Amino acid sequence: MPNSPFRPFETRLDEGRALTILRDAVAGADDGELFLERTRSESLVLDDGRLKSASYDAVEGFGLRAVRGEVAGYAHSTEVSEAALLRAADTARLAVGSGGGTMAPPPKGTNRHLYHNINPITDAAFAAKVDLLREIDAYARALDPRVVQVSASLSASRQEVEILRPEGLRLTDARPMARINISVIVERNGQRESGGMGRGGRHGLISLMDPDHWQPLVREAVRIAVLNLDAVPAPAATMDVVLGPGWPGILLHEAVGHGLEGDFNRKKTSAFAGLLGQRVAAPGVTVLDDGTLPDRRGSLTIDDEGTPSARNVLIEDGILVGYMQDRQNARLMGVEPTGNGRRESYAHIPMPRMTNTYMTGGDADPAAILSDLKDGIYAVGFGGGQVDITNGKFVFSCTEAYRVRNGQVQEPIKGATLIGDGATALQHIRAIGNDMALDPGIGNCGKAGQWVPVGVGQPTLMIGGLTIGGSAT
Hints:
By secondary structure, the chain is an alpha+beta fold. Helix content is 21%, strand content 40%. It has 2 domains: 8-229, 2-Layer Sandwich (PmbA/TldD fold), CATH 3.30.2290; 237-469, no CATH class. 51% of the residues are buried.
């Protein structure tokens, strides 16, 4: 049943036997754990007035890990049983070899809980969800006669985890997630353009179904689509760029955040490796990764190794002061774990990952920042992008951007890409607004084939000398 609690040690495994098997698997290792998970998720998609898909998924299993030095043995199974656990222990133990390790201390405890113990899947009736999607479709079409296609989706999930440590510590967490997404296509004289918006976080679905929440999202999606009907091709040039607050922080996340994860720096494959204590950004630039923000998409009460999440300062006033760490990399680098050990599911090994990564606000008025932009681009929305961690080079496409001349925001542009490298971009930040905002709760992050939910944020920023990829001359 979706609402029944996840109690693997009461229904599937004897805790004493599981602990004995785990201890045998990690004997002589530096670290290890048994990670058990049950996730229930539901997704509904309405496309052009018809329910295109409705799915309900149930995922359950465990992963057992033994770590020694830089090597980790990992085995996982969808079968939660003693027999499966014994087989997994034999596999994981191969990483330990002849042993000789010293078991790392357990994670510190926490009484904090960052989200409500709810099930977003069941806090609204299925029929009500379908009716809402149809209402969204009708509302979008009524806003503008040029709307020719509407797609709307609702998704909700509840992930329950239990972590058993070799010293007998047992940790649990139940993580809700809900999200709404709306996209529209408008048409004028055969020209079609699109716009989209979404919102979500670690809370119930019912709040997102309130008209006060979803109607502004629909209006914004239609506004962006209509705006793009009059957009002109972006220039191809090197220009100063002003980034808007909130979601444009995805550029910071990709171009800088990944480079500050512990594993890349331990292996010296990051552009920021070996730079602790040195200036890596302009004065005034402070970047944090904070997994303790209530209800945010990237937040965690404990990470997937049992370490409490934390507010970690990465760059302070332009100086690199820390990296994001899981337990293995922290131990190898001689520092403390930071609560950033994350995995996509029980079938994946944990690694250092971001939670909610953002730049703090400055003291500049955003309007004054724009008025100081003599010839450049004002980028408000971003789509996909690519980053090379070894040198920080990035390419990001803009979904909403404008040409700026003599401090005046003018025509919208399309087809704009921002090209640069994270280390240089940080150094070329010329102004930091006082309007720091977080994204609306729609971010996902990929690394080594694993996807996890994340948050981003930033204030209005002016960055000097970015390359603009466009088709206009």
